[in-house]
């Protein structure tokens, strides 16, 4: 299990051409942790990785590795290796020489190089490939060689910059499991950059969600999915229905809201977010937490029931995406539900009147609206 801190990033800022891309990033990364930087293109995750590696200098802030300030050190003087998306293998070397390159630069004895390369090849399941040229390898095999070359130096920290981005979907999923298995076996700290939410959820001990040069939320995959702190995180991790809400009352551990100026609901106060009467918030509801009912009237009145028109029912094989229009006031907010129920795969008529049933505890309080008031 991840333990004490290996890497500390303190107040990192960075600008390119007058545009600030990192706005005071601070983060503690634990030993033996698999941490993923997740976010859309241009959010600052790769720049942060390059600063950790030493390929970029921060404008301000510090990088500490095992308690030592390495901010001014070049990459080769940091106990850090990086795996890139496009492998960066030497085409004129065979597999063995590609993996052994860094060890030979360090002038290790040849018997130790032989032993370490063989060990690395076994780890990535490519024994017997020592004499292959890189031109004879598939994309997945080249990625494994790049990983072996990084691991053979036994770094304290391994940085991976979208290393599976060039692979097809099936191989990508296989390599996700392989990478996590290798990381657990070796106990090396991995920092992984991706824009793929499912990949981050599959592999990570923790996820740092980047947006506009900041970390919006840091936590375990389950915590980030089930308790997003902002509308960006809610919508970027999986899918979410983000609605506006006005606080009608907040007391005794409960919050009474009016959703989309139409429907009132009382839910438990989730803590961490100050709410007061008259304040406008954003709330989120995960699609899989909405039950679509075909009955004529509500049953369990402890839950929220929204009468809605079915706009579309998209068949996805093992599930259905159901699009509903429950709110009458403009702009007519659409809700998406996801169901694995066979009933929905058979009843696909648009225009049907249905009920959307939502448990109050599944409505997630997010940040205040930017133009919200607080009375």
Keywords:
OB fold (Dihydrolipoamide Acetyltransferase, E2P); 5-stranded antiparallel sheet; 24% helix; Rossmann fold; 2 domains; 375 residues; alpha+beta
Provide structural commentary:
The protein has 375 residues and is an alpha+beta fold. The chain folds into 2 domains: 5-233, Rossmann fold (3-Layer(aba) Sandwich); 239-368, RNA polymerase II/Efflux pump adaptor protein, barrel-sandwich hybrid domain (OB fold (Dihydrolipoamide Acetyltransferase, E2P), Beta Barrel). It has helices spanning 45-53, 95-105, 110-123, 139-151, 169-186, 197-203, 221-226, 231-236, 342-346; strands at residues 5-16, 19-30, 34-38, 60-65, 68-69, 80-83, 157-161, 189-194, 206-211, 214-219, 241-251, 254-259, 263-268, 280-285, 290-293, 304-315, 320-325, 335-339, 353-358, 364-368. It has a 6-stranded mixed beta sheet, with helices on both faces. It has a 5-stranded antiparallel beta sheet with strand order 13-12-11-14-20. It has a 5-stranded antiparallel beta sheet with strand order 15-19-16-17-18. Strand 16 and strand 17 (320-325) form a beta hairpin.
Short description:
This protein has 2 domains: 229 residues, Rossmann fold (3-Layer(aba) Sandwich), CATH 3.40.50.300; 130 residues, OB fold (Dihydrolipoamide Acetyltransferase, E2P) (Beta Barrel), CATH 2.40.50.100.
């Amino acid at each position: 299990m991840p333990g004490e801190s290996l890497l500390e990033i303190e107040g990192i800022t960075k600008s390119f051409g007058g545009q600030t891309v990192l706005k005071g990033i601070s983060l503690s990364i634990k030993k033996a942790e698999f941490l993923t930087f997740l976010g859309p293109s241009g959010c600052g995750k790769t720049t942060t990785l390059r600063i950790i590696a030493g390929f970029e200098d921060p404008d301000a802030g510090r990088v500490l590795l095992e308690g030592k300030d390495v901010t001014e050190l070049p990459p080769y003087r940091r106990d850090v290796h990086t795996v890139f998306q496009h492998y960066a293998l030497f085409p004129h070397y065979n597999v063995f020489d590609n993996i052994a390159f860094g060890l030979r630069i360090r002038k290790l004895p040849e018997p130790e190089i032989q032993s370490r390369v063989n060990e690395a090849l076994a780890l990535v399941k490519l024994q017997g490939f020592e004499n292959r040229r890189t031109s004879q390898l598939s994309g997945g095999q080249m990625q494994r060689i790049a990983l072996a070359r990084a691991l053979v130096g036994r770094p304290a920290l391994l940085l991976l910059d979208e290393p599976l981005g060039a692979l097809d979907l099936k191989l990508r999923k296989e390599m996700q499991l392989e990478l996590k298995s290798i990381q657990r076996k070796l106990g090396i700290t991995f920092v992984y950059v991706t824009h793929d939410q499912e990949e981050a959820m599959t592999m990570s001990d923790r996820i740092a969600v980047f947006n506009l040069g900041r970390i919006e939320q840091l936590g375990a995959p389950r915590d980030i999915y089930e308790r997003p702190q902002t509308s960006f995180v809610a919508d970027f991790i999986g899918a979410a229905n983000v609605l506006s809400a006005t606080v009608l009352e907040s007391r005794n551990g409960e919050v009474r809201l009016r959703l989309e100026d139409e429907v009132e609901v009382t839910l438990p106060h989730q803590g961490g977010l100050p709410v007061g009467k008259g304040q406008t918030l954003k709330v989120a509801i995960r699609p899989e937490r909405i039950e679509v009912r075909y009955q004529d009237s509500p049953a369990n009145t402890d839950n929220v029931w929204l009468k809605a028109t079915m706009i579309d029912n998209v068949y996805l094989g093992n599930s259905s995406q159901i699009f509903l229009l429950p709110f009458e006031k403009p702009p007519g907010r659409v809700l998406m539900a996801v169901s694995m129920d066979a009933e929905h795969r058979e009843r696909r008529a648009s225009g049907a009147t249905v009920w959307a049933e939502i448990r109050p505890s599944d409505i997630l309080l997010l940040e205040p609206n930017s133009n919200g008031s607080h009375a």
